[in-house]
DNA sequence: CGGCTTTGTCTTCTAAGAGGAGAAAGTTTG
DNA sequence: CAAACTTTCTCCTCTTAGAAGACAAAGCCG
């Protein structure tokens, strides 16, 4: 297995990240930014070309003098992002600059276990390869819907992933793909996606709240993922919002997830349909035979009062938890993402209303709370960013 | 004003911190730790001696060869820690190794405003000077009971400190003492104190929960204070624990502080005394004319059931909030400090019970929750640590 | 075409720091 | 007590990273 070359020093690392984040540059511009003498810069760039990470990209138009030599990341670099959700798998391939070249997905229940699920993921990679998008893979990032020991690359006691505990995800995939692999929690990777391409590019400390099948939170401190002592930081789905709430899968009562999540919305919509409180849901149930959070989004869009009330109520609960976390963490930005982004501004308005009322003015005075603009791509993009940061670092 | 010399490069910084944290060392031992050639090490140490930061301290006993030259931080280094609490001021002086040489305090209400309070603090410094403990002051750290713009060294919209908003604390004290000064939130400094001398020495990520007149939390990420976007991180006193709770000074209802804090305990003790529910408190009230949190501690020690119930109830509330924060932050250690440490193990048992029940097992599995062992000194010690880190850094 | 500007390459020079050779100052052993 | 061995410290040399400047190449404009 031929491992891709890695940069050899901190200068090469800086140059690679600059080319990744800001795109192709002339040698002169690079010198201005990294503050290296032109001679030293030339040495390092030549070395990167030799390693196959960087390539010349022709001459720029003259700006009144000699035309400058443009360099860019090698066009042959390929990174894979794999986002394993509770009910679906997304796989994307990007070039070195993290531009998405192809993106495929399929429904898949994570409960089917690591063997089945990872095989599906590899099939999706094969599909992309079949489209001619991949030659050699230089690295892959994988997100899984549960806590991860980042150092070891294995899930640890994941509640919704029976059979995955300590399964060597990194090792297996690294073997199969023949490249370096990193594994992290899917919500952390969504947060990294926002850091790379979303609204969080300028925020040093921010929170990404993902509301999907469950509820989780990615924490970014100083531009880097904060994972906590055992990799379970951001696990906010089971924070108590009310003593007398519904019983959660975790055994406690009143967990946020039991009040508001994809699963809880589907449950409540079904109840509303069966009890006859909502004609909208009753009709949907009859048509489809089942209800999901997507039906709730449609209900809100159609103005169904029961649906709107459900989302308002849920937004209030999320807002209560978020208000506490914002008091504690004082982030510079909060991004709401995940499947329920479709619930859109009704949800956002309710969350904002609670947070701005319940958190200290100093913490909320300059705090944007926004919906993610990345949609499905946040997870896979974050995965490629994670592995890119890794392979663009000196060993 | 003669500013103290600062180290000139990263090697000198490392050497100074090593001498501070590990005590005097021989030149050979230092070389082993910092991985410098003996020649380079000698150059840097000589430079530090020249700057007056380090001094020779004689010869060690032989270990089978030539006797080694011991070096230590200069005996003349003096750092001042000032901890301005809601109702008291503590001032301590330490040597370069942060050993406390003298510690004085006085009651003082922070509401009297910065002019009065800072004058009192300077008086306390004068008192220490009068004891012959101080020659030249090399730096001072100041903690105040509210949010601070750390970069500017000024309090920002502090709720319980009218008149302090944007008062130039750092500038004024730096002028008066003739040395570098840093200002921070008092809870952050307590956390730093624990990092330096307490149980948190080995924990990279931990929380210090201070329960005093109010409730606050110091957040340490990777061994460094996390302050958030606007310096208000850790402001957990106004997190909601119940919709139908007592009204808080902040205007909301059900804040943690309104349930459990020095002020809330005093209020509840008074109510218990007046209503005749507790003979213990009634008697104390008659003797002293007023009740404080200290009386509650005494009641618990004496086994008064009303007092015990108050603390249990309060511990439950603190535990609820803490359970959420631990789910979110996944710290490696939680230290409980502040005035209510006197409530001791009744409080701790209740907090632990709630947290271990309500937080995910992965986050609590390996999580010690302990009482601070530093008492009054945590704040002033953290203040000297803060300024020590600063003046022991290359500019 | 000649002067001016920008870019890239090559050579020279400096300073940081590693590493080794002793000198200095001990202890231990015969 | 002398010789052998250890540990510490100092001095000197050698390597290397990197800056700085000279110069060549390649464009613009009048």
UniProtKB/TrEMBL annotation, chains A, B:
Single Gene Ontology MF annotation: kinase activity
Ranges annotated as spanning the membrane: 321-348
Signal peptide positions on this chain: none
CDD domains: ASKHA_ATPase_ROK
Record has Transmembrane helix as a keyword: yes
Alphabetical UniProt keywords: Kinase, Membrane, Transferase, Transmembrane, Transmembrane helix
Lineage top rank: taxon: Bacteria
Gene3D superfamilies assigned: 3.30.420.40, Winged helix-like DNA-binding domain superfamily/Winged helix DNA-binding domain
InterPro entries: ATPase_NBD (IPR043129), ROK (IPR000600), ROK_cs (IPR049874), WH-like_DNA-bd_sf (IPR036388), WH_DNA-bd_sf (IPR036390)
Family listed: Belongs to the ROK (NagC/XylR) family.
PANTHER family: GLUCOKINASE (PTHR18964:SF173), ROK (REPRESSOR, ORF, KINASE) FAMILY (PTHR18964)
Designated name of the protein: Sugar kinase
